[in-house]
Design goal:
It contains 9 helices and 7 strands, in the order E-H-E-H-E-H-E-H-E-H-E-H-H-H-E-H. The mean pLDDT is about 90. Strand 4, helix 4 (about 110-130) and strand 5 form a beta-alpha-beta unit. It has helices at about 30-40, 50-60, 75-85, 110-130, 155-175, 190-200, 200-210, 220-235, 250; strands spanning about 20-25, 45-50, 65-70, 90-95, 135-145, 180-185, 240-245. Strands 3-2-1-4-5-6-7 form a 7-stranded parallel beta sheet, with helices on both faces. It has about 250 residues and is an alpha/beta fold. It has a single domain (about 25-245), classed as Rossmann fold (3-Layer(aba) Sandwich), CATH 3.40.50.720. Helix 1 crosses helix 8, helix 3 runs parallel beside helix 4 (about 110-130) and helix 4 packs parallel to helix 5.
Amino acid sequence: MATANVAPLAGREPGLLGQMVVVIGGSAGIGFEVARHARAEGADLIIAARDTTRLRRAAGELGARRAAAFDATDPGSLERFFAELPGPVDHVMVTAGRPRYGRLAELDYEQTRAALDEHLMLAFEVARNAPGNVRPGGSLLFMGGTGSRRPGLGRAIVSTVTVAMPALVANLALELAPIRVNLIAPGFVDTPLSAEFLGDQLEERRRQLRATLPIGRVVGPADVGALAVHVMTNTALTGATYDIDGGQQLVSSS
């Protein structure tokens, strides 16, 4: 299989050499970049996603050992996926799911339930399957966000998930120890999903962020991938939330 282009490592041993990293939601966007960075640090990869075609393409590009196509929000499918892993793995990163915006009058029960399933319930089910499938000292790493910590119209569901995830992760870190559990909370990240949400407003959003963020540029999926690998490799980290928004919270209420 062909592998993704990665930066050469200079003067040190790869941080994930000989370890197995599972990325659920690893076929595109942030998940793909997490997998790419883990591969660059010497990890073997198992990636999972819903879209079979996109998953197959990503697996070939990354040189993944295995790719599994299934709906991670289905508890039975998720349990089978963990049961079929080739022995205990070292790290599981979950990037599956998408934010759900809309006023309550615009969201029916199924849409609301889906939003909770894709984040909170998925985290519960991954944690339930972790003992025996993730080695002691390994890690679970989930995705949250920073952009909806403040109340706003149309943000009831996404804000609930945003606020709940750090509390869930902190509690899971105690329950699952010595498996480590952490959360990455991005602000705006320039991904295809962001482009889907913003449409023809995307370039204006990029321009605004470049002009206002303290870092002077837009956060990309590679930034999140690099942070994810750091959290995997630093064995002192557990129960914590790591913001990565380029300082967006310091200068913007949006």
